[in-house]
Every structure is written in structure tokens, then in C-alpha cells.
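Milestone M4 deliverable, item 7.
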Amino acid sequence: MKGLGGAAERIRPGLERIHLALEMSGHPERSFRTVHVAGTNGKGSTACFAEAILRRLSAGPVGLYTSPHLVSATERIRVSGARIPEASLRRALSRAAALSRSVAAATGAPMSWFEEMTWAACDWFRRRAAGLVVMETGLGGRWDATTACPAEVAVITNIGVDHTEWLGRSLREIASEKAGILAPGVPAVLGPLGAVARRVVSAAASACGCPVWEWGRDFSWHDAGRGGIDIRLPGLSIARARIGMAGRFQRDNAAVACAAAWRSASGRGIGARKFAAAARDALAEARWPGRLSPLPGAGNARVWVDGAHNPDGAMALARELVGMKTSGGPRRVVALWSMLGDKDAAGFLRALHGAVDLWVAYELDHERAAPLAGLVAACGKGGEPVRPAEGFAAAWKAARAEAGNDGIVIVCGSLVAVGEAWRRRVGEVP
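Output delivered:
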């Protein structure tokens, strides 16, 4: 059986296999309502915020399905905040593998690992009687296995350039694929989309007859001072909310999550006052490991991690790092950096130009890792100072030494890199 720490997620476009597996197992996906979250960046944090709100409002268990994981695949499937036990996930994946053999006999191809994991999540949610589930897409979109789960609310956080080999090379193509989660008549919540993506997604929503709440038009947030924000939603306002996750971009994610959760909750008769109280508590307490945060644990002082892995994510990270410096923060920022080979290393470096003082590059322990020589060459072409290191341990030591007592280390470039730092320096993700 594939291990729980990770697996090669071979992508096979199409929904025939997951639909057949769900049918063969009595349609577990029909046992719960789904809030479906897609987007290029921020969808994991948005799903986390939304689940935290809805869990506080629900009389029964609420599920959360996310990807990728940092250390163990059990992180991907949670009910009422608790991860699926490892033994339960192994049993679920064994059942999924048996189903996959039947699917292969019928269709000519087995399920992908992500499809098996999605089936395992649906099976677990049914077994745990979760009546409501927040599901984050994988790459997707149109062919994402999570799309097999009927949604009561569809969310698109934002759209940028990523996964171009599967989603297309232009924003128009990528937006069209992301809009594939929209279904006839299902309410949609759209985050801050650029002009091109907004036109594509709005046209798709109109064609599906989806009632739309749009960022900046129907909902938004404003600075309330002293670290709080006011979130405006149709029919209510959440005053002076505090966001427990670092980064201005998390305020965007929190507002999108509130809009999605409010669409879901208000449809079940939950009042504005009750919702606002639940949202205020959830936004303050929700945490999503690996997204702009200090690395916890002894011996990790002045090390931050961020899962940014594409130019848009890098731009958001750059704003935060520059803000730290200008507010009297670290005098030197050293990036402990690596990427997967299918990512835009040059674009990532351009977005962080000036925010990072030195790049300590190493090669991930991953079959799709970008070669160290390629990372070093990308730094050279971009005029970025770089120090190569052989493996994570050497990179960690070099980055800490280069940062000194007045600087910080930022682990970035891939959630695989963040996971490696977490696994080696902290252990299990909570």
C-alpha cells in the first residue's frame, strides 16, 4: 500500500473513475452537504477558516478535506477538528484500492492516488456522520475528484498562473478550468479575481444560473485599527474581528471564508448575531500550519515558514517580508529555498527580488524536485545571491548561520520544503 507520508499523485483527467467508485460504494458523497473551495492560492486557509466557523454553528460533526499535507496524509481528513486515525486511513485506502481494481476493470484505468484519497475522505465522513464538509480542491476545477461531491456553495478564492501543464498557460484557460466547480443554481462566492479571470468566471456563473457574491461588490473587509478588521457581508457586519493567522493576505482569505460560511449557514436559518459571534471566535483561533508562521519548537527561533510556490504567492510573501523590515523587524532575510521542477523558479525569484538578502538553495527529497543546479542557475540569471547546499540539513545549518542573530530564515518555495522543515525540526503537525 502507498505510505501515509506521501505518494506520487499521478494525474488522470476525467471524473468517470471517481463517480464509478462512489456509485459502487453506495454514494457516500450524498450523505453530507459540501462547501467546495477552489483557487490558485489561499484555498487551504480559506477552507480552514470556513470549517472553523461552521463547526461552531453546527449541531453535528463537520468535516474538512484539504491537500496537500505537510507530514502525514492523515492531515487531509478531519472531523470536528480531529485528524482521521492512521489505522482508519490505512483501512480506508485498502478499501479504495480494491475499488480501484474494479474501476480499472470497467474503465481501463485505476483511480489516481488523489481519487483514492478523496473516496477515503467521503467514506470517513459518512462513517463519522458528518452532515457538512468543507472540501478543498486538488488542482482543480473541472476534472478535480472533489467535484464529484455535490456542493451547496462553490468558492473560488483567486486565480493565478500555476499547474500550467494541466490547467492551461493563460489566465483565461486557468480561470475556465477553475470555474468547472460551478454547478447549475449553486451559490458561488468569488474572491479577489483579476479582470481577465473575473470575466471568465462571471460568464461561467451566469451560464450556470449561479447566484454570485463577489469580492468588493457584495462583501469586503476594512481595517478597524489595533489589529482588527471589520468584515461586511450581505445582511450583517462582523466588527473588529481579529485574525489569528499572520499576513495581510489572510484577511482576504478570512473574508472569503466568512462569505462562504454565511451563504451556507443562513440557508439553514442561522441568524446574523449568532453567526457573527461564531465567526469572530473562529477567525481568532483558527490555525493552518505552514502558511506564513514561525516554525514552532525548541531551537527554531527566528525561523518562519511559508508555502508560497508560485509568483502570486511569492508576491504576497514579499509584501510581508518588506513590511517586517520596515517596521523594525529583521535586518537580514535568508530564504531556505527549494522548489518542484514544474514550478516557475524564475518568476518566484522575481517576485521576491529585494525582499530576500540571500538564497540558500537545496534539492528537495522528492521525485519531482527541481535539480539544485537549476535553482542555482535561476538565481544567477536573476542576479540573486545564492549559496548552494547539499540537502536539507546542510541548508538549515547554512541559512541559520547566514541569518545571524539579527535576521530571520524563511523556508519557502514549496509545501514540500515546509513539510521537510516541520518534520525534521518539529515532528507531527497538530
